[in-house]
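Case study 2.
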Amino acid sequence: MKMKDSGFTLLELVIVMTLMVLFLGLSGVHFANRLPSAKLDGTARELSGLIRMARIEAMSVRGERRVTIDLNRRTYGLKGAARRAVPEGIAISVVDPVRGGVYGGEYDIIADASGTVEPCEIILGTKKKTLRIEIDPVIGSVVVKGYAKED
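Prediction:
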């Protein structure tokens, strides 16, 4: 009685399993390298949105709103509200037009009832990428600009 040629040989199964493990391993490394960049982008979007929100709230209540960045504790938030933490691996600093670089302590970004926001530049960065949040004092706009660091 002759056995039909059906199924796979052990060698074929080993080769396929090896290729699958190789592809899955490489894709895991690829996505792990993208994670710090995604955290950086998310933090920049959240912080710039918070500054925009403070400006709108200040105009609507005809009062002052402050966004406080605590560079020592690595947190930020509206004054008197819950604070968000800057994720690990992301450096944060502020460039004030009068004081220059600010690397420690608390820094307040003040929005007033007229819709103006104090000018400054917030710099967020990882080892591979840096984002700058620039605030226009006249129209209160917040612009996020990014660039990759060279090796």
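Residues 10-61 form the longest helix (52 residues).
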